Every structure is written in structure tokens, then in C-alpha cells.
Amino acid sequence: MKMRSVLPMWIAKIGYIAVSVVLFAFGVLFITLPDISVEAIGTMLGAAMVVYGCVRLVGYFSKDLFRLAFQYDLQFGILIFVLGLIMLLKPHEALNLLFMAMGIAVLADSLFRIQTALDARRFGIKKWWAIVALAVVCAVMSAVLVIKPDESAASLVVLLGAALIAVAILNMLIAVITVKIVKHQYPDNIEADYFETEDKHR
What is the per-residue pLDDT across 150-191, written as a single tens digit (0 to 9) for each? Predict the structure, then answer.
């Protein structure tokens, strides 16, 4: 029986970590330079989100052993990819649209990550609580981005930067502790094929 290739899993795992490093860097940049132009923010985040969406789609189809980190990545990968394209094509759009789109994306991802953490607990992963804690922090920050209680653009840029840093750390943690790659992993249909063969021999 031919083993499943682990290359897509490694691409997804390394891609998760690489994009997280980029988001972390953007977060630091936005905090230190809150007066950066909206067009620059839209262009940088748009490019990162397009790549991030592709990475999450690769993760979904890679089928790592636990199936925890990438289980919701089909829908969310498409969402991130589309939002990234919109930001790239229209980086000069209104500030409110940019922050609302990012807030909704991060909020949705945070809620999915809480479910991932609960699934990780059932798998016996001890650091599941850290995923929950970071996901809650991300959810709170993203909710504030959506409702925008502070009309100061610079304050929202700083908040966006803090949210990106939290998201980056969360994704790194998930990639490290929940993505299990083994070299000798059989395809999913091996069990079905085995029983079908057994039935034919009876």
C-alpha cells in the first residue's frame, strides 16, 4: 500500500509558521507606526491574506494525522483569500471597511480555534488551554475592531497591530502542538479497501 505524501503537510505547517511571522511583523509595524497610510495597510495585509488563504487550503487537503489545525480551513481559507484579493484590488477604500473586514475574519477564526482547542483536549494534547486563552484574546480584540468604540484612526491601527500579534502567536502555537506529521501514514481509504477485499475472499 502506497504511503501518503507528507509534503503537503509540511508545506501547510511551515506556511502557517511563516505567515504567522509576517503577521507578527505587521503587528509590530502598525503599533510603532500608527500613522501609516490606509493604502499601505490594505496592500500589505491583502498580499499576506492571499498567501495565508492558499496555505490554509493546502492545510485542509493535506490531511495530517490529528486533523485538528486544518479541519475548518476549506471555508476559512476561501474567505481569507477573497478578503485579501479585495484589499489588494481596493487598498484605498474607506478605513472602516478595512477594519471591519479584518475584525470579522479574526473573530470567525478565533471561534473556530476555540473548537479546535476543545478537540485537542479530547486528543490528550495538554496545552489545549493555551489555544483557548489566545483565541479568546483574539476574539475580544477583533470584536472591538468591528464595533469601533474609538474614532481615532491611529488607535484602531494600534489595536489592529495588537490583534495581528495575538493571531500570529495563536497560529504558531496551533501549528506546533496540533499538527502531527508521520512519515508512514496510509491514505484514508485503506480501511474501506481492506474490508472490501476481505469480503471478496469469504
Answer: 667 788 888 889 989 998 998 888 878 876 655 555 454 544
Question: Cell digits for 202?
Answer: 469469504
Give 82's Cβ-side CA count (13 Å radius): 8
The pTM of the whole model exceeds 0.90: no
What whole-number distance in Å separates Cα of residue 152 and Cα of residue 1?
Answer: 61
Contact between 145 and 156 under an 8 Å Cβ cutoff? The reply is yes
Nearest Cα residue to 8 out of 58, 47, 55 = 58
The three cell numbers of residue 119 are 478537540
Domain boundaries, given as residue ranges, for the chain: 7-180
Residue 137: name the closest of 155, 122, 117 by CA: 117
The conformation of residue 5, written as its DSSP 8-state character, comes to: P
Report the C-alpha gap between 52 and 71 in whole angstroms.
15
The reported pLDDT for the residue numbered 21 is: 92
* pLDDT above 90: residue 24: yes
Contact criterion met (CB below 8 Å) for 142 and 104: yes
Angstrom CA distances, 25 to 32, 125, 194, stand at: 11, 29, 49
